[in-house]
Design a protein that fits this description.
Blueprint: E1 19-23, H1 26-29, H2 40-45, H3 63-77, E2 81-85, H4 88-91, H5 96-109, E3 113-119, H6 125-128, H7 137-153, E4 159-164, H8 166-175, H9 190-209, E5 214-220, E6 224-226, H10 231-254, H11 270-278, E7 285-288, E8 293-296, E9 303-305, E10 308-310, E11 317-319, H12 336-349, E12 356-360, H13 371-389, E13 394-400, E14 419-421, E15 428-430, H14 432-448
Parallel strand pairs: 1-2, 1-13, 2-3, 3-4, 4-5, 5-7, 6-8, 7-12, 12-13
Antiparallel strand pairs: 8-11, 9-10, 14-15
Helix pairs in contact: 3-5, 7-9, 8-9, 8-10, 9-11, 12-13
The structure holds beta-D-glucopyranose (BGC).
Length: about 450
Amino acid sequence: MTATEEPLSPLPSFPPGFLWGVSTSAHQIEGAADRRAPSIWDAFSAEPGRIRDGSTADTACDHVARHREDVALVRDLGVDAYRFSVSWPRVLTTGGLDFYDRLVDELCAQGVLPVPTLFHWDLPVEVQERGGWLERDTAARFADHAATVVARIGDRVTRWITLNEPAEHTLLGHALGEHAPGHKLLFDALPVAHHQLLGHGLAARALRAAGAREIGIANSHGPTWPASTEQADVEAADLYDIILNRLFSDPLILGRYPDGFGELMPGDDLAADLKVISEDTLDWYGINFYQPTKVGAPGTADVEFSGLTLPAELPFSVREIEGHPKTDFDWPVVPEALTELLTGFRDRYGDRLPPLVVTENGCAYEGVDDRERIAYLDGHLRALHRALEQGVDVRGYFVWSLLDNWEWAEGYTKRFGLVHVDYTTQVRTPKASYGWLRDALRAQRASRA
Ligand code: BGC
């Protein structure tokens, strides 16, 4: 994105009570790998060639040791809430829950609302060895994990997120093999989607049984744009849209799979599973938004796209979106696609739609004078505000991410933080975007005083 030297005009006013937050995830920041059970990402990073810079997340941002400093950064930023994830492998380790107990205490002491996510892709190896999300039993084990966590920190936590991006975990981890556990199952990965959704439903029951009242999920969504008006492109884009978007939101919100997909799902009683997935499991729906996707009819060769290899046998092909700035990940910056996405959810689901929260939005750029990130966040907040003006009930916005961190298959090569992390010294340096957001939030409060 072209750096803008012009001061940006103030953001429009967001409604009173709108929840401002920042997001992180356990495996990407915590470090202290020797004090938890191994996760599928430890195993995956140990395989040569899997991670771009050959790194591991063994130390990452050393957050377990430095969480007080990190919570102080959240507090000083002036956001209301901090979204973090609870590492299932750490919870399985004796004393592992103590860390989350301390973290939640520290957040409460600093006046920041804790918003834990119970699964952000770091499945314990021991669960994977029993089949992982390809096995139905993992859904029940996930509910046990939820019950263990809520029993320990549920007295101070009011907002819960069950899963992070079951769509990406299915597609990248199990269909394309670009993420842990590295399976390349293409459409045979569909049981992973169903079992995660079932896990969401069972975990929500466990949370409710422990008194939780505000349960959500954080899924990735983005508008899909057909490459042309040709029928083959439109059909391919529709299929992609189902796989990325509706395959996850329809069962959660409508209690059914898109046409033709229910019969592909595992289990003896799909109707019963769909009840577990959809009945009283969501008080709000979290959307992680990064970019729209342009999709056309299948090609004849594999395509390299934003670090992914998309095989030719897929029934669609992803195309370059031109005419927009790109982030360091080569993702196009298209803020208006967020308005389109949010209004599209309202139009599709109408009265069935719970209130929405943007649970992740952000971009990869180098440098601490990150004017491109300011422009990205400013543009997306204005786009969100336009959705509010059009009557969409959006209750909050979380930036991805508080800190630069270990970006999965990209290792340490992509920086998404509002705060720069020097991975050698672990020194934290707030970037220009951190100061911009802090000032923007102050202005929001002042406009209401
Ligand atoms: C994930 C994050 C990730 C971010 C940027 C989201 O898909 O939830 O863990 O770091 O995107 O790639």
